[in-house]
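Structure tokens please, single chain.
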Amino acid sequence: MPALTRRQVLCGGLGASAFALLTGCATPGTVSVNTAPAIPAASTGEKVTLTYWSWLKNVQKVADIWNASHPDVQVETVWIPSGNRGGYSKLYAALAAGGGPDLAQVEMRTVPEFMLVNGLVDLSRYGAREYAHLYDSALWSQVSFSGGVYGIPQDSGPMATFYRPDVLAKVGAAAPVTWEEWAAVGKELRGANAYIDCFSLADTSYFVSFAAQAGASWLRPAEDGWVINMTDDATLNVARFFDRAIDDGIVTTAYGPFTPGWYAAAAKGELASLTSGSWADALVQSVSGGAGKWRVAPMPIWDPRGYGSSYLGGSTAAVLANSKHPREALEFAVWMTSTQAGIDAEIANSGIGWSPVPGIIGAKREKPSDFFGGQNYNQDVIVPASKSQNMDWSWWPVTTQSFNILGDGFRRKASGTSLVDTVAAAEQQIMTAFRNKGLTIRKEQA
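Here you go.
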């Protein structure tokens, strides 16, 4: 991922007057906390109470392990809805009111959006770079912006394929190695009253991840602003591929992953596979009667020279701008996300996605899985997947709006609008969204 300066994230080459307008309307009631003097650590013997807002279940049990060995720095957690389901609106409102928690769970793709409203502390001012060597370089790059660090990687979702060998066996197939093979097997499965997978027209994060795996890099920063290219060969080839898959009936668009319709079809053996993030293993294990029937394989590849996987999801533990104790908040975030004790506790109590620390995948994930037929899939499949990622992919300041734009277009597939046309139209709308926020953007020249 290319390094972004904060100026590139926030203004992308705006003049002084335009930049003042941007910060005046985008900031929720504050100027950047990162221009003020750094806040000193608490005095010896002073008790500090940190608040942490997260959508993880039972995360207080994780904090309690820290609390037991850190009597002077106690962490209290508050559950909020996940990101765009209401959690972010609560965080933005709290920031605007001059309050909010010390830490919050923020998706990696949303970090630039919080930077846009001066919502995050630059943790490099408190020593965050000292911990960079602990984390996967691809994930650390997604929280690093030209000298600044705006979150600590918490988890990710390297993609793999969860599949039913017995369903594939109906057509004499194994887990497809390439996407072309996937399509060929999918055609045969229709004669066996099964789909190879579903394709969500509502959740465009899957399509985005597939494009990234193919080598796409939709937006990048430049000295004069942002550069966009959503109509590159990689993206359009992926769009054409899934246009054909939908039109030929290879996949179903009647439901998305982990919806009631999906669970019903998976339980009946009407779905042969699902290509999703590593975190999907817990949800697949909720399929009725599925124990022992599922296995895990690498996701299909587009090109032997391309990427073996892609990320679907990933979050950070970020320190919010109004924290009075950013040093202590950083220490807790690093403990929770990089130590064996913290990672094991997050897995056991909260079911986090893939560990951000190479070499520490969590004790529970080092063992074979009874549900997946004794397969040691985390070691054999997910570890290699985490090492085969598109390092050129980066997120941008209007990611949420971009996903909504793309989703609105994808939903029109049923009425005849192709995914290819949707991607091209979305590119123009996303450029407009940038400009409406006072950000500079241009189309990459061929």
